[in-house]
Every structure is written in structure tokens, then in C-alpha cells.
Amino acid sequence: MESHMTIARPLPDYLVKRYHGWKATSYAENSAWYRKLADDGQHPRAMVISCCDSRVHVTSIFGADPGEFFIHRNIANLVPPYAPDGNQHGTSAAIEYAVTALKVPHLIVIGHSSCGGVRGCFDMCEGHAPALEEKSSFVGRWMDLLRPGYARLPEGTEAERVAALEKQAVLVSLENLMSFPYVKEAVEEGKLTLHGLWTDIGAGGLECYDSDRGDFVPV
Amino acid sequence: MESHMTIARPLPDYLVKRYHGWKATSYAENSAWYRKLADDGQHPRAMVISCCDSRVHVTSIFGADPGEFFIHRNIANLVPPYAPDGNQHGTSAAIEYAVTALKVPHLIVIGHSSCGGVRGCFDMCEGHAPALEEKSSFVGRWMDLLRPGYARLPEGTEAERVAALEKQAVLVSLENLMSFPYVKEAVEEGKLTLHGLWTDIGAGGLECYDSDRGDFVPV
Amino acid sequence: MESHMTIARPLPDYLVKRYHGWKATSYAENSAWYRKLADDGQHPRAMVISCCDSRVHVTSIFGADPGEFFIHRNIANLVPPYAPDGNQHGTSAAIEYAVTALKVPHLIVIGHSSCGGVRGCFDMCEGHAPALEEKSSFVGRWMDLLRPGYARLPEGTEAERVAALEKQAVLVSLENLMSFPYVKEAVEEGKLTLHGLWTDIGAGGLECYDSDRGDFVPV
Amino acid sequence: MESHMTIARPLPDYLVKRYHGWKATSYAENSAWYRKLADDGQHPRAMVISCCDSRVHVTSIFGADPGEFFIHRNIANLVPPYAPDGNQHGTSAAIEYAVTALKVPHLIVIGHSSCGGVRGCFDMCEGHAPALEEKSSFVGRWMDLLRPGYARLPEGTEAERVAALEKQAVLVSLENLMSFPYVKEAVEEGKLTLHGLWTDIGAGGLECYDSDRGDFVPV
């Protein structure tokens, strides 16, 4: 196992202990399922695109077991437009794999309250975050994806507009998903349904985008 | 909440039911903690870079609660080299945010057995997956990141070489992480430690890269 | 560093050695986290009130890492009633600090089997421990706090009654906690939840007080 | 198990899971020792007086196993002077029990860097914390114990003086310990030794009070 990287460190003690605890309980009670998942491969019921934020636990919220959700997590749960330009697109790779190889029947985009990435985008679009506008800012260039959402924010207080932008991050992603030819085809053939959610971390709330009303409504 | 996207669908019933169950139990038991996390913001102890694979549950393995891990998940837990070229780099954005804004003290890259992305990379590098070599293949272009790992695979059976490539995905990522100036600086200042893990899904095993031995060893 | 106290002694050798071992391993693996905790301050998820008893290791039981629990330990895990009389109340000071300054979302009182303090209280209330009834007995005066718990013990064998008194120590403390105005307010606003536990040292058991059943039940 | 307290809540999920993990591993591997501790009672080698601060883990630092340390934790690791006035003194009760009933051979007072209680005392003594001076402030009245330490602080920058006050908290406690007749007697008979420590949380440092030099020195 050759490598020029020599700086990896041992895992902190308490994580080692917790792992051994998991192995002796949750894993032991469920080992036949894990073995089957390893032998047969995964057959997830859904792909979930969620934020990296440590407070968003989509597996907890939906009581998901191992094997259930194929999960991509990035800053602000964003999907870029389809752009097969030969460059690296990690999010697009995950979508391509889930839809064309795993053929997931559901694709859920979930946003959340107090999103740091969305907040940064808001400040940048308002002209208050010059550092994010620099070419070298990965967060800034990533949040450019949400500029179309900012452009259609309604009037309101700052807090209202930031919250609306969090929901726009879900809608922009859903729109961009439809620019992927295999997503569009699967949706039109009834083999895939898209879902847009937004969760309120503090209140434990969950809202789902209702296409008919054109708004998010509590689940 | 205006949008041109009108195809989002309601959440399947069983997910709605599980959400309501979570709200009435896990959330209710822990609501004060969620409120505090919402009010005070997150202070995660670690960033974890994991695969999207539905069988990898890093929060379960480590008994993690909401707020503990900032998690980025992509195909094959890969980190690209530092490239501030003004293009969109979702993984790099997540790393930038975790290290410079959240100042996480640990950064853990975790690979796993039976990784579909790594398998595809292996086949592509062996010349057996022409579809992945096309410019339009997001998965193929993403897995190009792992070509340096393929180049240094030891001799062995195909199964051995594929497993070794899964671990190379962790090592290549750790190496690329050090090409980010703020990661390198934080590591050298003792404010950040990097950790490389690999988990065997079926057996529930966990191995940690040991820089001294130059190999992964069971935790 | 002037002091009139000149009788402090060097640390025993084996403790010095263990400290150096910890520094080179657990600390080294986790040093970035310790530095962050030192720089950012603590954000504990819970206050725990536990007995001083050497056999009760709440951090082990819950796989807690540094920074997770704000822990007050006194004889028999007792909380006195709210009494802002200008005197020194160490337990009340710890509660005031945790709830009003740190704003902990959980407050856990944990009792245990074979509690020497509770045993002493039982003997004293039965009239068999005159030394504890003396004004100068700090243990006796401290255990007076548990007299209301003794008053409502059910009939039973002595062993049953002593074990019931250990659990009363938890309940009396929970009741007294609610006499602190800021505790009551935080509980009523959903910003703080109280939890009552009792652990069986020999059997490694853990029971949680269930308000609906009015009894402790295994976790 | 009668009680008028009906507001206790279930334990959060992840703590329940971690407990079960501990039970199946650490406890299972050590159950004979736990059973012996339960049957024979505790015979701790030392009493430790430490701060409630979540970042101070004296059992980790000294690799302590269950049964090893009888631990009292309060705000700023303070010991009040001996005062057998018939009022409740939780710290004094813990000391009385450890020295007269358990007859511990070592008594260790350990202070630490970034202590919020000491900082509050410093601000109060400088006249900058009127809230802490109110009769109803439990933290303020508790920190009054450290006023003699403030009175003998050397000149210096604020940071130096606060750090010196953290060490004074250890020295004042050691002095007050000697006002307990059974502590003094045990020390003079060579049955008990006192130790004063101070730990630097971020750096993982440990210093021990050296009576000859009249200062703390690295262990």
C-alpha cells in the first residue's frame, strides 16, 4: 500500500470505542443484512441530495436503514445544470450513477434552515461578501449556482429573503435536474419521481414542495 | 415561491409516516439540543468525506449525534487536487468551508468495500469500460481522479487489486487534501489532523491508515 | 506564585507515567480538537449531576468525548432546593452556570446502586446513625436533602427500601431542579429537558425514569 | 416509585445506542471487575477535586479505571474553609466522606486553563461584573471563596493575572483543606498526601505545585 502521504493519524480513542460498541450491537444484530448488502450490492429506494451541514440527519428523520438511501451531500444541496464538458462534476457523477446505474425510483432534494452556504450566497449577491466573489473562492463559485434563485426572490425582510433563498436552492436544483437527459426521460416514463423538501432544524419541521400550489407545505 | 419547475411530487406515504414518528420520539427527546444547534450554529468536531453508497453509515458506526460531523459524500470519497480555476468544484467548496469557516479539527476520509465507483475506475483503467472513457461520462471523468492510485497498484489477483484501489481512493484523497494551502497550514500548525479509514461493509470491519507502517490496520 | 501552603507533594510516579502515555497517544490523536475547545470555549450538550462514587463513569457509559458533558459530582447526586440566601451553594452555582451561561439543552441526574451516601441517609432516618445526626457532620447535613425521599418510601425489605431511596435521590433532585426559576422557564420554553437515570454498577444496567409510568424502566 | 415530578423525559436515541454499545464491549470485557466493585464496595486510591468544565477529563488524563478515583466536581475546583455550622456544604461532605470513611491516601486538586468560573471571579473582583455581586448569584457567592487568591495576585497583564488566579484556585483549596481537622491529622500522620495540579486544555499540559519552589512546574 504505497503512498507518499505520511501524515494520517490514528483515530481518537472515543471514536474507536464507539465503533467497537456499534460492532457489538447494531452491527451484530443486523449482520445478516450487512452481509447480504455486500454480496448482492445496493438497491436503494431513493437518492437524496442534502447539505453537508452537521445538523441535517436525513437518515434519522426518515428512520433509514443501511442500503436505503444513496446520499450525495454538498454545500447547500445544489445541483448544477447538465454540462458534459469533460471536466470533473462530482454532483453530476453521483446523479448519473444513481439514475442510470442504480435506477433509483425517487430523487429527493432537501434544504434546511440556517444554511451557511445559502447565507453566504445571499451576502455575495447583495454585494457584501467580496471574498466570495474572488475567482479562488470555491464556496463563492459553487454558490454562483444559486444566483438564478436570488434573482427571483420576493420582496421582504432580510430574514424572509434568506429563508426564501434556502427554498430556492431546492427549486433551482430540481430545475437543473431536469436538464439531465436521463433524468428527464426517467421522469417522463414514470420511472423516477422528484421531490423537494426543506427542514427547519430547530423546530424539527419538514415541508414539501407542492407543484400545484407553487409553494412548500408542511408534511 | 415562484418556480418554473412543476414536476415535484408529494413524499411517499411511508416516508411521511416515518418522519412523523421521528418527530414524536427522537426529535421530541432531543428538541432542546436541536433548538440550541439552530440558535448557536454548528461546531462539528470533524469533517467526514464518505461515499454516496447507501450501505455506508458513518453516523451509525460512530454513534454520532446531530451537530457532530460535517459530512460531504460523493462517488468513491474522492478529493480533487487544489485547482482555483474559477470553475465549480463542489468537493473543494465543502473542504474550504469546513477548514476555513468551521475550523474543524479532524478530517476523516472513509472508503469502503464493494465500491461501485472504484470498480468502474478499475475496469476503465484496464480498458474494459469504453463508455466511462467518453467525454460525456460524468462518472468516468470523476473517476479519472483515481488514475494515479491505479498506476501504483501492486501485482495480485483482480479481487486483490480492486480492494487495493479502494484504499488508494482514500490515500489519493489524503494526498490531494495536502495540496490545499489552508489544509496544509492547519495540519502543520497542529490545528487539523487527517485520518484515512476503510470499512468492510459485510463484515462490519474498520481499518485505519497507519503512516508508519504504510498500510491500513484494523482499528 | 506565593502561598502559605507548603505541604503539597509530587504526583505519584505511576500517575506521572500514565499522564505521559495519555499525552503521547489520546491527546496527540485529538490535539486539534483540544486546541479548538480551548480557543472556542465549551458547548456541552448536557449537564450531568452524578455521585462522586469512584465506580460511576458516566463518560464511559455514554462514549463521551472531551467537551460533551458539563459534570457536577457530589455525594448521592443531590440537588438542594433553590435558596438564594447569600450563602455558598456549590451545586446551585453549577446549575446556574450550566443553564444560564452555557444554556445546556439536557440536564441528566444519574443515581446508582450501592450508594454509600444514600445508605447513610437510610440509617440516619431509621435512627441507627447518631453520628450523622450531629450538627458537625457534613455528610449528615447534606443527606438531610434526601429526607423527603425517605418519607415516601414504600413498604418492603430493607434492601428494597434502600434501593428505592437511591431512586428517590434522583426524583428529589429533579423536583428541586424545578424550584430554580431559570430551570423551570427553560423547561417550559422547550429549551431544556430533564432526565432521571439510575445505574446498577455490578450488572451494568441503566434505567430511565418514565414520567408516564411513574417508575424507572430499563433503557 | 411515587413522585410529584412528572416532567422527566426519555434519553436521546444516540445516548441509548452508545450505552448499549458500552454494555456489549467495555462492560462485558470488565464485568467481573464491576461485580467485584459492587460486592466489595469501592476502595479508591485518591479523591480528585476538579472543575465541572466539560473539557477536563481527569479519568482520561490518568487512564483511570472504574473504582480508582472518588471525584468531586464543582465550579472552579474550590474547597471552602471548614465550617461545621449545620448548613449544607456539599464539597465539605464529599471531603469528609473520602477522608474519614474511605480513608483515601491521596487528595488531588486540579485546576485548568480557560476556566469560566475563575474568569467570572476575576471580573467580579475588578468591579466589572455587578451581576455576580448580587446576593442571589450562586456563582458569585461561590466564587467569593477565591477572593483571598485574587488579593495576592502578582502584577502583570490581564491574561497573566487570570492564569495566576486559576492556580490560586488550587492553592486556596489546598489551604482550606488543611482547615479540616481530619485532613490535617491524616496529613500529619502520613496517611494522606495532598497534590495541586493545573492542566492546560489546549496544549494538554500538566503542572504540579512544588512546595519547595513555591510554584507550579511541568510534570
TrEMBL record, chains A, B, C, D:
<dbReference type="Pfam" id="PF00484">
    <property type="entry name" value="Pro_CA"/>
</dbReference>
<keyword id="KW-0862">Zinc</keyword>
<comment type="function">
    <text>Reversible hydration of carbon dioxide.</text>
</comment>
<comment type="similarity">
    <text>Belongs to the beta-class carbonic anhydrase family.</text>
</comment>
<dbReference type="InterPro" id="IPR015892">
    <property type="entry name" value="Carbonic_anhydrase_CS"/>
</dbReference>
<dbReference type="GO" id="GO:0004089">
    <property type="term" value="F:carbonate dehydratase activity"/>
</dbReference>
<dbReference type="GO" id="GO:0008270">
    <property type="term" value="F:zinc ion binding"/>
</dbReference>
<feature type="binding site">
    <location>
        <position position="53"/>
    </location>
    <ligand>
        <name>Zn(2+)</name>
    </ligand>
</feature>
<dbReference type="GO" id="GO:0015976">
    <property type="term" value="P:carbon utilization"/>
</dbReference>
<feature type="binding site">
    <location>
        <position position="115"/>
    </location>
    <ligand>
        <name>Zn(2+)</name>
    </ligand>
</feature>
<keyword id="KW-0456">Lyase</keyword>
<feature type="binding site">
    <location>
        <position position="112"/>
    </location>
    <ligand>
        <name>Zn(2+)</name>
    </ligand>
</feature>
<keyword id="KW-0479">Metal-binding</keyword>
<dbReference type="InterPro" id="IPR001765">
    <property type="entry name" value="Carbonic_anhydrase"/>
</dbReference>
<feature type="binding site">
    <location>
        <position position="51"/>
    </location>
    <ligand>
        <name>Zn(2+)</name>
    </ligand>
</feature>
<dbReference type="InterPro" id="IPR036874">
    <property type="entry name" value="Carbonic_anhydrase_sf"/>
</dbReference>
<protein>
    <recommendedName>
        <fullName>Carbonic anhydrase</fullName>
        <ecNumber>4.2.1.1</ecNumber>
    </recommendedName>
</protein>
<dbReference type="InterPro" id="IPR045066">
    <property type="entry name" value="Beta_CA_cladeB"/>
</dbReference>
